[in-house]
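Sanity check

After download, print the first record. It should look like this:
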Amino acid sequence: MVPLPKLLPYVVLLLLILWEIILVSLLFTRVKNDTYSHVVAKVQQRLASWKSHTLSMAGRLVYLQAISSAIPIYSMQTVQFPISICDKLDKMNRDFLWGHNETSTKVHLVKWGSVCKPKFMGSLGLKQTHLMNEVLLAKSR
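Expected structure tokens:
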């Protein structure tokens, strides 16, 4: 039998997952901007923890793909995000990709619609948040 101290982190993780499931399933009110502000804050915290000027463009792209698809994915599967939340997430992605920070802004070399095209079309293959939300909702139906 496995000792209890070794199982404790798994039990805590399971309880946190169940808590999030219960919160999302009990959400019967109208979805507002504040409803999913924790998702925006979590993505912003992760993107702010890495300084964009320390990574190359390829490094920022890989980090951005991992963060922008991993953090909001569960919530996007269950309910449709407001467009303003999707726009905030896309803006944070854009700013991180091009190297913006609080003190300076950079020129966007390519429009965001071109960056979000598939890789086989010669683009970077990032996904727009509202389109990813619609696809995930259609998949669960």
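If your output differs, re-run the checksum step. Summary of this record's structure: The mean pLDDT is 82.
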